């Protein structure tokens, strides 16, 4: 079995469509591990060992177990309303956002909006933002004046995997970095 493909399917379930396998998430995004395994197993063989391997080896640290591994959730990226209980955190002075060239005109006009997600995702460094942007075509990187935003009352959170989250980034807090 292809664990990468299964990981992407788990991401879909835990972030967007738990009903796809007949499970539900609680208000904090937690799903019961036994129900997740049972739901995936209806499509192809799947076990706790496979799930633990996916969580352990995921480079983006997309998932977290609770202490006794009876619950699992996606760390961020939800399009369904959940509160993943992230504490507010003061961001660094500068964060980054990577996108594709095709989105630049909209971003320059409207700023960064969460679109189908609950939050805008920001990277702690330019290299990560470039990788994210490349997923959408030719990458364009923006500096986000996060320190100024925080000073003006915008709230930031940091996910357990280092991704910074905020509700929106108005265009006046964005500086386009020349792309290659």
From TrEMBL:
A Gene Ontology BP annotation from the UniProt entry: tRNA splicing, via endonucleolytic cleavage and ligation
Keyword NAD: yes
Swiss-Prot/TrEMBL keywords: NAD, Transferase
Family matches, as InterPro entries: Ptrans_KptA/Tpt1, RNA_2'-PTrans_C, RNA_2'-PTrans_KptA, RNA_2'-PTrans_N
EC number: 2.7.1.-
GO molecular function: NAD+ poly-ADP-ribosyltransferase activity; tRNA 2'-phosphotransferase activity
Matches recorded under NCBIfam families: PRK00819.1-4
Function: Removes the 2'-phosphate from RNA via an intermediate in which the phosphate is ADP-ribosylated by NAD followed by a presumed transesterification to release the RNA and generate ADP-ribose 1''-2''-cyclic phosphate (APPR>P). May function as an ADP-ribosylase.
Similarity comment: family membership: Belongs to the KptA/TPT1 family.
Protein name: Probable RNA 2'-phosphotransferase
Native source species: Anaerostipes butyraticus
């Amino acid at each position: 079995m292809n664990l990468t493909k299964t990981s992407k399917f788990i991401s879909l379930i835990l972030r967007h469509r738990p009903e796809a396998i007949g499970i539900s998430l609680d208000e904090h995004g937690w799903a019961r591990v036994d129900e997740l395994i049972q739901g995936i197993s209806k499509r192809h063989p799947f076990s706790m060992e496979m799930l633990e391997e996916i969580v352990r080896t995921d480079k983006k640290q997309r998932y977290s177990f609770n202490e006794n591994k009876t619950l699992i959730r996606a760390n961020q990226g939800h399009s369904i309303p959940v509160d993943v209980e992230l504490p507010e955190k003061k961001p660094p002075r500068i964060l980054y956002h990577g996108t594709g060239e095709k989105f630049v005109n909209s971003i320059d006009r409207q700023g960064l909006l969460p679109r189908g997600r609950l939050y805008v995702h920001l990277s702690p460094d330019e290299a990560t933002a470039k990788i994210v942007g490349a997923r959408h075509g030719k990458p364009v990187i923006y500096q986000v004046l996060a320190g100024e935003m925080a000073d003006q009352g915008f709230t930031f959170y940091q996910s357990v995997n280092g991704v910074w989250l905020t509700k929106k980034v108005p265009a006046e807090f964005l500086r386009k970095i020349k792309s290659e």
